[in-house]
Amino acid sequence: MDPENLRYTKEHEWVRVEGDTGTIGITFHAQKELGDIVYVDLPKQGAVVQQGKTIGSVESVKAVSDIYTPVSGEVVEVNGSLVESPEILNKDPYGSGWLVKIKLSEPGEAGQLLTAAEYQAYVGTESS
Amino acid sequence: MIKKVRPHPTQNEALLFETSSPGKAGYQLPELDVPAVDPAEALGAEHVREEIPDFPEVSEVDVIRHFTRLSTWNYAIDLGLYPLGSCTMKYNPRVNEAVARTEGLMWIHPYQPDALSQGAFAILADLEKALAEITGMDAVTLQPAAGAHGELTGILLVRAALEAQGNARKRVIVPDSAHGTNPASVRMAGYEVVNVASNDRGMLDVDALARMVDEDIAAIMITNPNTLGVFEEHIAEVARILHSKGALVYMDGANMNALAGISRPGDYGVDLMHLNLHKTFSTPHGGGGPGSGPVAVKKPIEPFLPLPRLQHAPSGWSWNYDRPQSMGRVRAFYGNFGVLVRALAYIMAHGGDGLKRATLDALLNANYLRKLLESHYEIAYHAPSMHECVFRHASTGAIAKRLIDYGFHPYTVSFPLIVHGAMMIEPTETESKQELDLFADALISIAQEVEENPEVVLAAPHSTRTTKVDEVAAARKPILKWRG
Hints:
The complex is a heterodimer of chains A (128) and B (484).
Chain A: E1 7-8, E2 13-18, E3 21-26, H1 28-34, E4 37-41, E5 48-49, E6 54-60, E7 64-68, E8 73-78, H2 81-84, H3 88-91, E9 100-104, H4 116-127
Antiparallel strand pairs in A: 1-2, 2-3, 3-9, 4-6, 5-8, 6-7, 8-9
Chain B: H1 39-43, H2 60-71, H3 94-100, H4 103-106, H5 118-135, E1 139-141, H6 147-164, E2 171-175, H7 182-188, E3 192-196, H8 206-212, E4 217-223, H9 235-244, E5 248-252, E6 272-274, H10 277-280, E7 295-297, E8 309-313, E9 316-320, H11 337-373, E10 378-379, E11 389-392, H12 396-405, E12 412-413, E13 422-425, H13 433-452, H14 454-458, H15 471-476
Parallel strand pairs in B: 2-3, 2-4, 4-5, 5-6
Antiparallel strand pairs in B: 1-7, 6-7, 8-9, 10-11, 11-13, 12-13
Helix pairs in contact in B: 3-11, 5-11, 6-7, 11-13
């Protein structure tokens, strides 16, 4: 169920690279573990972010979780619809629930991340 | 069907706005016997409000009955067991309140001359000494106004002590089983947080830690017992690893309820720590507090403690501001005095043996509940429990709500975060076997309901004036004002 064309992190984010832009989101597993998401805190457009660092947070009725960016670069677009309708993250984490788009400063980074198969194997060991 | 006129505690209560009746008032003024003044003329027309919209017009007795009825809605430690434990609610012996209301203590003023405050100085000095002895540390500041304030003070002390050696370093290690405020305190003190995972026994992974510690690590911020209620068996080894690289060991004393009188952090390598007086030493919990978060340190860190310090000379007690290495003040005046009086009263009433007994009772109560419940609920970690025990269940939220129908306050739900479906139970030292049995019976009965009639649990609570609240809608689309 985790799309093959994305790359994943152990912190349960995904990135889809198209040209020099990476679109970032959280995985199906992440939204399922968090439960009903009620608030999303995202960086501002223009923010410069660094791989592995916190860029915002996702809040559910159970917990608040940091979002770690899987790639470095400049935030060029933020998914504003999540402010009014955070439930999109639960319904469509790999589609309309994307978080931010980043103009990549280190295009090689994404290739180092987990593939869909590796991520699924990791999630399997984590929950067992 | 009768018409029940009098609102009962189990019925809902109208807002005062809704009970308003035009012309009603809670006061009656005498005839004016001086010349009338026009407020608009005296104050300026722009300062006079024509009408207060929706201002409730009610009588005195309407107001009294309204708030008295509301006051009966509260579940309180004075009504029954509160399984959230020392973090949130613990019974405080009433004698401490009586002591704090002693006239000379209640009306004391921080600006009154030192010569007239000698008794207050002595109380503070005695409490510092007692807390130093209980923690096994060398010096204590009572200045921080709450636990998280103590944490921040503690990590700033780490920074001050390391800066004095020439390098403040960059990072602080925080285990995933640490107290929730720790990472925030680390960040506020300008350090980066590095997480270290727990092992399958619910303890810090010492090998992972050893690989992590280098010259950039300023300190570890460790909670012991951790939030799983498990004592970090390798705490002395942890301290050795940190010290070998010149880093410090900070202990969050939130769970001191499990240690007081038995185990002293200063004896197993802790360099500094804070205490939450409300959790262990019987001072007010939340709801207006105020709080207190004393910080206890070993000798090498003492010069950096906040200003001022207590000092004693043949002429009596006074404040010492002449401490060039001090990190400075963290609060106006020296802590929340009335709270400190309660803590000292509690410590002195118990004495060393009494504190030890209270700790053993807290441990016994938690382990008694664990024993009664572990054949009905899955225990999260098999390591021995200290003052609290953590179970796991997929329906932890629903079970907690069902407990309300049985007359108990819910336990801590979904925390610690590292246990999925956590049910954390801390009965504290106060509860009797009878009360613990009633609580265990309720949870065992709910476990049977989960098997035989899950709908009744999932839709709980049933006996309250407000039924199950839609928490998701409330958080996503909050209505924050009257009439939306």
